[in-house]
Design a protein that fits this description.
three-stranded antiparallel beta sheet; two-stranded antiparallel ribbon; 6% strand; DNA-binding
Length: 687
DNA sequence: GGGACGTGTCATCCT
DNA sequence: GGAGGATGACACGTC
């Protein structure tokens, strides 16, 4: 016996994107490995695994009334049952659940379910997975129940499928209006669907169909902005194209080579969505924020029929970085991710949506939705604010007549190519609208993170698994690099290239004109953040940069060990710490250098002053010496004027000199003897 | 436009 | 051996 673990709690971004698509009337089925199989601690479920959000205080195992299987029941809301995969007949189970008025969650449609649950604004956010079932049936898919003529055939949203696809129109889509007891077996229907598709696959030459499809795609993309109101012929073409898309996708799906919904498919879907596909959102039904307790019986819609497109989980994951940070503390973990979505405030008039028919309008609509989010929403949800900025940019470009090429160049220069320049697929950019679409699809979540992911640790578009603890070498994980899916999106680069490229892209991205563009069109909040802060935000690092840098090394290591962090997160954290430390060191170094320079300048000043003093003293001494010499000269003449020789004649001072002996006696000697006497021996003088 | 200055970052050496 | 400090060098932004 196994428990099913929804992936959604870690896939907020994906969920959010799915919500957006759903808001626009697109049905996205994330029909891939959405679950982790968690072994139970006990058969009866008294100890449900709650490390991932399943709290034993909130859920318990409960046998289905008819026996044969177990479900996960939400405590306090016992009618919300979670299907056990070992139930032999899901259809039987479904009927039982329907009979009880219990919302049933088809296992393979959980994300769509989640989308509708969240979109319906289940006030019980933490239990939105199970609790919002009824509301979800109405919130987005409820157009059928409203009796809309367009939505009725294709509850999931695409009436083309209802018309052209026997799968969608004839079998699946008929269920929502059926009584609960007549709801068909979803799994069995899926098998039937696959069988039908396989037959169709065999009947159609898919190679030629693909070529034709691609041609139509390019053509369709070029005309997507003008095809608001097509005549019936064009509508038929779109129907055919949509069918071809479904065929091609189903072909890949059946061949096992398809991981889901490709970017091309999604783009084609977006560009070829007729008005009716967007009109499935009933203006009378609040999409978000509604607390109405929708009754499943009155809005009985099979969730599986809300699905008209499949999206590869991996591809979807590439759309945005995931929140991969898990605390080991389950209490903290369980209540984190849901709340922001419940704060999603739908304020846009649904009428606006109804008339949005092209990609430009679609993204404008998404933009409007995003603007309704609070910063707190954006902070906690995985879809980064910069993602919205990117959407905003394109919205501005289209709504305010801004040059889309200029905008595109801005992003390209900043390392944020709106088109999937790293994408190695054969998608060609036939016009700007495709660039917009690809940008919206293939973008990274952050201006910074794009280049960072692209150029730094996220080589190959590595978006680590949420459950993977990261205590291994964070630079040696190359498994993801070999994933074709990831190589499909991003390229590999070395770390040094990453840094340099990051520097260059940063410098390029905010120079001159681009800065003006940013300040004109964007909230400058993120711009005020440091690069590391933006990086940390992009990777949802649960610590502040200040903490990372200033924390003592022991606390730092303890922190890293206490949290489940991805390799990329650990790498970024260490880089942030290293750069932060080095930044402080550089500041200190410069401060010391400045202090040293100032100190040396003081020394120079002091030495100069001392030199001036010495020179002044020297001058004074020289003056004193001169005075002394003058006095000595005067004394000389005075003495000689009083001296006479033996004949009484005055002694000529030019011929004689006074010589002082060591004993104090003074002699008068001829000058010629003074010199030689000094040289040879001291002369004997007379007084 | 060019220079001075401040700042962040990296590489390298050293503790 | 790793963490971190110190520092030269470089790039870039700002004035």
């Amino acid at each position: 016996m196994k428990y099913l673990k929804p992936w959604w709690s870690d896939g907020g971004r994906l969920l959010h994107l799915t919500i957006l698509l759903s808001l626009a009337g697109l049905r996205v089925d994330l029909d891939l490995d959405l679950y982790l199989l968690i072994p139970p601690h006990s058969l009866l479920g008294d100890e449900l695994p709650h490390s991932r959000g399943w709290s034993s205080s909130a859920y318990a195992l409960s046998p289905f009334p008819a026996g044969g299987g177990w479900g996960l029941a939400e405590l306090g809301r016992p009618k919300c049952l979670w299907a056990d995969p070992v139930v032999p007949s899901e259809g039987q189970l479904l009927r039982e659940v329907r009979a009880l008025g219990v919302p049933f969650i088809p296992r393979t449609r959980v994300d769509a379910w989640l989308v509708h649950s969240v979109a319906a604004g289940d006030p019980d956010g933490a239990h939105g997975l199970l609790g919002a079932a009824a509301a979800s049936s109405v919130g987005v898919v409820g157009a059928a129940a409203d009796g809309g003529s367009q939505a009725a055939p294709g509850v999931g949203g695409d009436p083309r499928a209802a018309q052209s696809s026997p799968l969608a129109a004839g079998e699946v889509d008929s269920a929502p209006t059926e009584p609960a007891a007549q709801v068909p077996d979803t799994r069995g229907r899926a098998d039937e669907d696959n069988e039908i598709l396989r037959e169709r696959h065999e009947a159609v030459d898919h190679s030629s169909l693909h070529e034709e499809n691609e041609q139509r795609i390019s053509t369709q993309k070029g005309k997507s902005l003008q095809q608001k109101n097509e005549d019936g012929e064009n509508a038929d073409k779109r129907d055919l194209e949509a069918e071809q898309i479904n065929d091609s996708r189903n072909e890949r799906h059946l061949n096992g080579t398809d991981t889901g919904f490709s970017l091309e498919d999604l783009f084609q879907l977006l560009s070829s969505q007729p008005e009716s596909s967007l009109e499935v959102i009933s203006p009378d039904v609040p999409l978000l924020g509604s607390n109405d307790d929708m009754n499943l019986s009155t809005h009985n819609v099979n969730i599986s029929q809300a699905i008209s497109q499949d999206v590869s989980l991996h591809e979807a994951m590439l759309l945005c970085p995931t929140n991969n940070t898990f605390r080991r503390d389950p209490v903290v973990r369980t209540s984190e991710p849901q709340e922001p979505f419940l704060q999603l405030n739908y304020q846009t008039n649904p009428e606006q949506i109804l008339h949005e028919t092209n990609l430009t309008s679609f993204f404008s609509f998404l933009d409007n939705q995003m603007r309704n989010l609070t910063n707190q929403d954006l902070l906690y949800q995985d879809l980064d604010i910069n993602t919205f900025d990117e959407i905003n940019l394109m919205s501005f470009a289209t709504e305010e007549g801004f040059d889309a090429i200029e905008v595109s160049r801005l992003f390209e220069d900043s390392g944020l190519s709106l088109h999937s320049s790293h994408n190695s697929t054969s998608v060609t950019k036939s016009n700007s609208s495709q660039s917009i679409c690809e940008g919206a699809i293939g973008y990274s979540s952050d201006l910074e993170s794009h280049s960072y992911h692209d150029l730094e640790g996220a080589v190959g578009g590595y978006y680590p698994e949420p459950t993977k603890p990261c205590h291994t070498d964070h630079r040696s994980n190359s498994g993801f690099h070999e994933d074709l899916t990831f190589q499909h999106i991003l390229h590999n680069h070395t770390y040094h290239l990453q840094q340099s490229a990051l520097e260059s892209t940063e410098s390029l991205s905010w120079s001159g004109k681009q800065q003006k563009i940013w300040t004109r069109y964007f909230n400058d909040t993120d711009r005020n953040l440091s690069r590391d802060e933006r990086r940390a935000k992009a990777l949802d690092i649960p610590f502040s940069v200040d903490d990372i840098v200033r924390m003592p090394v022991d606390s730092f290591n303890t922190m890293l060990s206490r949290y489940y962090l991805t390799d990329l997160q650990v790498s970024l954290i260490r880089d942030i710490r290293r750069r932060g430390k080095n930044k402080v060191a550089a500041q200190n170094c410069r401060k010391r250098k400045l202090d040293t320079i100032l100190s040396l300048e003081d020394d120079v000043f002091n030495l100069q002053a001392k030199k001036e003093n010495l020179e002044r003293e020297r001058t004074q001494y020289n003056k004193a010496i001169t005075i002394m010499k003058q006095k000595l000269h005067d004394l000389y003449h005075d003495v000689f004027s009083r001296l006479t020789d033996d004949e009484g004649r005055p002694v000529n001072p030019n011929q004689y000199a006074l010589q002082c002996n060591h004993d104090g006696s003074v002699l008068i000697v001829p000058k010629e003897l003074v010199g030689s006497g000094h040289k040879k021996e001291k002369p004997t003088g007379k007084e």
